[in-house]
Amino acid sequence: MPLSLPPEKAELGQAFAAVLKPGQRVCLTTHVNPDGDGLGSEVGLVHLLRAQGIDAVITNPSPTPPRFSFLFQDLPGVDRTAEAVKELRRADLIIVLDISDITRLGMLIETVRERRVPVACVDHHVSAGILPAGPRYVDPGAAATGELIFELAKANGWPVTQQVARALYVAILTDTGGFRFSNTRPRTLRVAADLLETGVDPEQIYLEVYARAPEGRPRLLAEALQTLVVEPEYGLAWVTVPPGSIERHGVSSDDLDGVVEFPRSIEGVRMALLFREIAQGRVKVSLRSIGDVDVAAFAKTYGGGGHTKAAGLSLTGTLAEVQATVLRAARAYLGSDGVGSRESGVGSQGEKRSSI
Ligand code: 5GP
Ligand code: MN
Hints:
By secondary structure, the protein is α/β, with parallel strands linked by helices. The chain has helices at residues 7-17, 36-51, 84-89, 109-114, 145-156, 162-175, 186-197, 202-210, 216-225, 245-248, 261-264, 295-300, 319-336, 349-352; strands spanning 25-29, 55-58, 93-97, 119-123, 136-138, 229-231, 236-240, 271-279, 282-289, 305-306, 310-316, 354-355.
C-alpha cells in the first residue's frame, strides 16, 4: 500500500514548489557537520529538481564526511561546498534542509542573511529558529527531513527514481538509528517501503554508511568510552571525547555518530551526554534521553535545540567549565520533574558516581 498524502500536506507541498522554476540556480544547504539526513535529503532533492530543469547544487557550511560521498558518485560537480559563498551569491533561491535556524549555518550565516532571495526550508525539528522569508515545509512529526522530501515529490508528482530513493533511504535510516528510535512511525516505514520498491538495496546502503569505517573510528570509540561516568541517582551518564583524539586517529567528528547511544543504553539512564571540544574554548554537547525527559527544551535554555529525545548545544568555555555547568543543570532538570532522582539531588554524588 503506497503512502497516501493527506490533502492539506499535498496543498502545502504544491505551494512550496510554486517558487521553483526551470532554469533557476538553486543552492541547497544544511547544518554544520552535515549528517545522513541533511546530505541524503539534499542529494534526493537535487535529483528531483534537476529532473524538473532546475540547476540545483549543494553548498554546505562544512565538508561531506567520507562515508556519505557514495551519494555523490553520479552527481559530478554538484557538491559545491568548497565554493559555497560564491555559489550562494549567484543563487536565485536557497533551500535550507534539516534546520530552521540560520545560526546553524556556520560560516554561511552572513551570506544567507544578506542575500535578498527567497530562503525556503524543509525541516522536522521542534525548535523553530529564524530564517529569511520563503516557503516552508516543516513537520516535527516526521522522522527525518528525507521523509518530507519524499512527501514533496508525491505532492508534486515528481518521479522518485532509484537515485532519489537511495538518498532518502540514507536520510531516514540514519535519523531513526536504523529504524530503532521513537521517531520511527508506521508512516516512516511506509515511506521506507516505497523507497525499497524502487529497487534500492538496503544491505548495500548499510555497508556504505556503517561498514566502511576507517580503523580510527572504533579506536576513537574505545577512547571515548573509557571516560564514561554514570550517576545512577540522577539517571545521568556521559562520555567525553579526549581533546586531540579525533585528529590522532585520523577521523572526523562524523565518526562520533552513535557514541552517545552507549551511555544512553545503560539501565536507569534517562539523560545521556557527549562532550566534545569543537574549537579552543568552545564545547559541543550532544544530548539523548529516554522516556519523558525533553532534551530539546533543556538544550534551548543554552541556545541549542533539536528533538525531544535527541538534541545538542554548544557553549563557550573549557571542557571542564562546560561540563560543570551543563551537568549541574542536568541534575537539577532530572530532579525537578519528580521522576528522575530517587533522592533530593543534593550532596553524596562523589561516592555514588561510578566511573568505568
Ligand atoms: P547531534 O547531537 O547528533 O549532533 O544532534 C542531535 C540533534 O540535535 C540534531 O537534530 C541536531 O540538529 C540538533 N542539534 C545538535 N547541536 C545543535 C545546536 O548546537 N543547536 C541546535 N539548535 N540544534 C542542535
Ligand atoms: Mn534530521
